[in-house]
User: What shape does this take?
Amino acid sequence: MKPFFSYFGSKARIAKNYGAPRHELVVEPFAGSASYSVYWEPKYVCLIDSNPVIIDLWQWLIRAVPNDVLALPLEFNSTDDLDLPLGAKHLIGFWLNKAASHPSKKPGAWAKKYRADGQCRVWSESVKARLASQVNKIKHWEARVGNYDISDNVVAHWFVDPPYTKMGHRYQHNAISRERLASWCRERRGFSQVCEDETATWLPFKPFRQVRGLIKQRSFEAVCELHGDIL
Assistant: This one.
């Protein structure tokens, strides 16, 4: 599948490089736009995020049918004016900007400029058509609001993509003890992939990929892979 929405720190560009899930269940405890699960389409998916905006959005998508998506409006002054569930408003809002950490309410000049180019860059008919073609593929997904540690320690592929040490301040919910998170990651059963930038030291991270940003910026991704008890 293609991304359901753009989000700051998304792994959409490099999700394929992490490799296929090692277990049938994938848990993303810092879900965001869930780029890993979106790309690999696992058999079972559990999304967790402490930001209720993100979970409202995913819960709406999980419940939606194609016609719900196709019926969403294109013309409005502000998403506040729309008679829609919050999750649908948030979905539209993330398509009014690129790589944002929170949804916009009004389409700016950039969103208006690229609406008709047919490339799924901003909220448009082409975006609605893409999302409508995908929503039936995520009916088996679960989305829960809460801290990363609310999930049971089940055997799973844990794709852990927390706010980074360097740029994590861009997220609303970013107060995380790295020491506690490191211990939690080491305790996961199954297989864990923990993402960070190359400067992080709270786990034995290894250089992974250099990623080009939207405005010619480059970031250097790192990853730590952990194998836990599955008995």
Q: What stands out?
A: The chain has a mean pLDDT of 89.
